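Protein entry
_____________
===
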Amino acid sequence: MIVVIQGKKDALDVCVIGRFSRRNPTSSQTLVIDDANSIRNSNFNPNHPTVVVVHGWLSNQNSDINPTIRDAYLNKGETNVIVLDWRRLALMDYVTAALGVPAVGRGLGQFLRFVNQVTGARFDNMHLVGFSLGAHLVGNAGRELGGSVARVTGLDPAGPLWNLNSNALNPNDGRYTEAIHTDGGYTVGGLGIGSAICNADFFPNGGISQPGCLTNICNHNRAWELFAATVTHNHLVGQQCSSNWQVTWNSCSGNSLHMGNDDLRKSGSGMYRLDTERRYPF
């Protein structure tokens, strides 16, 4: 099922939110923030885990990230998969889109609080997943909820305008925060932030250039491709690194931690390096 959420609040006026379940992945319902009946009369199940997926710049709810991650979850078990479509802002110039991220993130947090109030769906049963600018957006959503959601995952969090930005994704945005860095921002044209910003930060193949990729866009998108694969297989394991030098030179030998996956009780800290293959499931 797809659930379309219309926002009465300014921050949600630029958004549409779709919810999917295993029972009906194509028919739609409409939820309106502050309209309790619109949620009670929907098929949202507060007993199932809730995963929120947020796309990045120049994208929308039909972009590949959304069905890829949605299907990984729904092929595995019962989950409320919520897809935030913030295209009205995301399709504007990058600076405008970036400046709007905190407000949209707060609006998403307010919506999730409303869902909690109406249905009893627990914050510790929610996982917020965002790509690029969407990574900082879900960080702000988690911050709006006081860091009470179980997990916040940033998929190659955007770098330009975010390195010194107080609104960037940070370790306090959820009970456990994680970033997967695939296109480090300190390279020429790098789209990701490239530095550790969460409880646990993973740097596949060093976090800059990915096997089989010839462009920054390919490297950047590999973050959500890898995440979706780990939801299905939970097979990519990083070794903890004590420095950026170890990340770069692949000399990490610390504790191991699985990257990504759907474990709502996951915990860990530090920087991790792992190597992957060129093609799915990597």
